[in-house]
């Protein structure tokens, strides 16, 4: 089985006639045991009971702890546990989560993220108010490895609504995180699961949904996305794979647009993503001072898109990197 599917994996409908919950909170986990208690706890505080909410951790053969024991202790019988027979990778683990879900609504809550109190009731209200929506999401906050607030996501609308021109807005650049969005199971059954790349696969999925269905939204900050050095995002930054994957994703998303919009939007999407990742590379440099990560990002960026802004920013970053040893030396001399 390919770790990265080349086409959307099939999600089987549920036809067993047995009672189904409204919600499936599926928690994919791999070597995030230090954060998993917070993820599980944030759901249990909003538990609707077994009749309405399935809660399950799907473990991709973690090696950092006994995840089964951790789930048993934290969940006290309320949270179920499933372990892959072998490590299958994040995309196949998400696919397993969706296929094992039984609820009408599926929330893929990564084991290192958290939801705030009120998330599930707010999304319920969105689906009730906008029954035509295939997915619904909220605004979210970024937190660091210690759980401290970092910054907030953009606000897409001032009040709960279905978002207008959402596919075109999504095509411009990534603007969603897993932790914030819930998708109806029937949508995954019709459109399939995640595929194509290891990084940015969610951007393609949200665009695929937006092409076919409405997306509902609330500006409430009810989810928390954690940024840390063991995440898929950080690992992809280290090699520069994040940008290569995004190029593939961008091409697919642009193909979902009307022909007349595709050429212009492709250039816009590349520019926006390069601007964003360049700023992220600046931020990562000052936090971690990892030269190799910065060099990998810069080399890949310059192959994709160049303008005066990109050239000047990369030159400034390189200047910071090259002069850093001297600045640290003179700082020590002064002290």
UniProtKB/TrEMBL annotation:
Coiled coil: none
UniProt KW keywords: Glycosyltransferase, Transferase
Root EC class: transferase
Documented EC number(s): 2.4.-.-
Keyword Glycosyltransferase among UniProt keywords: yes
UniProt entry tagged with the keyword Cell wall biogenesis/degradation: no
Residues covered by the Glycosyltransferase 2-like domain: 24-188
Membrane spanning stretches: none
A GO MF label: glycosyltransferase activity
Name of the protein this chain belongs to: Glycosyltransferase
